[in-house]
Amino acid sequence: MLRWFRRHAEGVFDVDDVTNRSRELAGFIRAARDHYGLFNRQIIAVGFSNGANIALATAILHPEALDRVIAFSGMYPLGERTSPTTLAGSHILALNGDADPMAPPASVKRLISQLTTKGATVERVLRPGGHGIQPSDLEAAKAWLAYMR
Asked: Which domains does the chain have, with CATH numbers?
């Protein structure tokens, strides 16, 4: 099922489509900033699963449009590709279960590595369990948001 972008199989994303959709989302964010007068207001994307993945892709490929993400059960959305840009100034909260078959630990580890290598500030919260959002994730997200203010 199409969510935010096409995929070839479970956990195998169509990276060209991810790239295109993240460009569209970045364009929408820029247009919304202009239309609603949000010029310097902080925008934080919050997503679960593929919602987290499209937010992460947009933050990785278009940090000028989106540089704050709370990713519940997200993973690295760009296959073998890396970001051509620096992510200095970007802040990402990654909340994952340690036994998540939909966002496997290896892909989450790649996500964290790619983000930090490019200069993003990343907080990773790893909890017991699988794919989902647990009360402890919500508490961590609330604390992170309070810190971001």
From this structure: 7-148 (3.40.50.1820)
Q: How far, in Å, CA of 123 to CA of 145, rounded?
A: 12
CA gap 138, 33 in Å, rounded: 27
Task: Work out the pLDDT band at 6, boundaries 50, 70, 90.
Answer: very low
* Band of residue 48 on the pLDDT scale cut at 50, 70, 90: very high
Question: What's the CA gap between 52 and 12, in Å, rounded?
Answer: 15
Mean pLDDT for 45-61 is 94
In sequence order, what are the residues at sequence separation of 6 or more whose Cβ sits closer than 8 angstroms to the Cβ of residue 124?
94, 96, 108, 112
Let me know: does 108 contact 96? Beta carbons within 8 Å.
yes
The predicted structure's pLDDT at residue 12? 55
CB 19 within 8 A of CB 5: no
In angstroms, the Cα distances linking 84 to 33, 34, 61, 63, 88 are 24, 26, 7, 11, 13
